[in-house]
Fold this protein.
Amino acid sequence: MLPRFAHYLIDQSGLAPEAVKGGLKAKVAQLLMMAAYRAQMQEALRLAAPLMAQVTRTGGVNYVAVFVLYLAATQERRVVNEFAAQVRQYAPETGGDMLTYAEELRQEGKIEGKIETIESLLSVGADWSLITRATGITPEEFQRLKEELSQLVDLSDLEDAQSE
């Protein structure tokens, strides 16, 4: 499940996207927020793409991952894919990483949602025959999904550690 984001940056909502000021990461963050909450989404993302291509992966916070996570949480899949294609024009390796990371997040969220639903049903005493009829998932498949989610989380943690 994709997380919710709190917005604590300076309100620049009265600005046009091209008027956003600040450091590289602050500008990218502000433009992504504008795209999430304003009618000028396409313009904000168009301006954010070359900036996103400049965000480097260094020790500490993986800002590329944070920005992709924010995009996935606030935009439709089509918009994320279009943005990644724009970023790829400026930095081919970053655009590809964005799509891979966004797809992993989507897959992780789908699996997590199924597991949460089944665990909820189990917690209220539903038996497996009902759960299987309702979800199409057997107890064996449920265990496989839990293992798959664990592997996705472990892989994501490993990639984060390698990028730091």
Q: What stands out?
A: The CA atoms of residues 107 and 158 lie 17 Å apart.
